[in-house]
Amino acid sequence: MFEYTPYSSQLASGYDEITTKKNLDKLNIDNVSEAKPFTIALLSDTHVHYTDLKMAVDAINSRSDIAFTIIAGDMSDQGMEKEYMLLYDQLKRLKQPLLTVIGNHEYLANAATIYQKMFGPANYSITYNTYKFIFFDSNFWEKNGSPDFDWLDDELTATDGAIPILISHIPPFGDQYDTTSTRIHRSLTSGSQVPLSIHGHIHRYSYNNYFGDGTNYLVVPSLEKRELCLVTFDAGKITVRRERF
Amino acid sequence: MRRLKLITAILMLSIICSAQKTLLQQLSPHYVQAQFAGNIGLLSLGAGYNLFKDHVHVSILDGYTPAGLAGTGVNTIAIKASYDLITIPIENKRAVAYSGLGCNFETTGKGFYTSLPDRYADGYYKWSAVHATFFLGAKLQVLMKKRTNQRLEFYAETGTVDSYLYYYATNPGLRITDMFSAAIGFSYQPGKRQQVK
Predict the structure, then answer these.
(1) Nearest by CB to A86, which of B72, B106, B174?
(2) Tens of pLDDT along A203-234?
(3) Is residue A8 part of a domain?
(4) Number of folded domains that form chain A
(5) Domain extents for chain B?
(6) Residue B170 touches partner A, C-beta closer than 8 Å
(7) Strand locations in A44-162, DSSP E?
């Protein structure tokens, strides 16, 4: 009823039903360690396109083959509390678990506090099936600092035989990486043989072996392109499909 | 000649002084105001002027949202201009419905942009430190001294900011009521002082 500033990070109670922790718990219930084919849905850069988001959620909910959904960051425009509340109204309708990674827009104004309350930590991982999904905060400028490459190194080293899949908002060839940071990032991923690296930020779809080092980089298009990326993991084979909604 | 210059200077000075007195009198605000919420802080304090035969009111307010409510403390300076739409006199009171426009400037807080640092490409981020506002309200004026127009005023209003209206306009299916929030406040007008004869 009362608003003190659009940049509040107070967040009323009831906006903590889709936290990363809750979703990881849900995912762990039917998690298996043996190889079993599964598909995930990917969205990115949802910003303030709430009608498109509603359509995307409907499209994901209408499918029966989605194990979980990932949003590759940038879920606001100006870091306003209202933006996250409108986002939440749609995301809470997802039937399957949702996992998110933090984008640069999540560092505007007081949005990082909102992100922490609504979703959770910036860096985390889950081993699902025979894959280890590593969610990595790759933002530089808005944090006035570097991503935690030591954490990424530890996560990529301790895979316990699982195949590492990296998810971060800004790709290592994105605007916020300088030459040194790109070199550090690549030295970690190429050493651990990451077959798939999932990103957003660029707003345009691309899927290629960007550095020619065996890691395929998938850039998920921004939400307003009304395109869902579906990735199927089947006995070590990774297939990427695009579907309009 | 010297004397003439001196007299002219004294005359000029006295004219300036008397003009300044009138100017100061003219510039002194007509009322002081305090507001709770309404996107200009937990509490905002300010002052304002009645213009166009008391139909238009322009206030300048400075509000603050403490860090406990916003992550980092946010200071907001707001200019509000309202227009009285309907006035109903009730004995020594007046009930007024009004609408208005405003402009909010976030002067402190993290990551607010009015111009982007050089490393960012054009349009990387939208302006976030300046917002236009729109509000509708009702106020009750209690006339304490009719002769001097000394009065106390209580108001309640509902308002929104430009970005919220943009989301509403560009996303069919959103509820307009979700874009508005409430504010309450009061103002005190000491009224015109009596001329000392």
Answers:
(1) B174
(2) 999 999 999 998 999 999 999 999 999 999 99
(3) no
(4) 1
(5) 46-189
(6) yes
(7) 66-71, 98-100, 124-128, 131-136
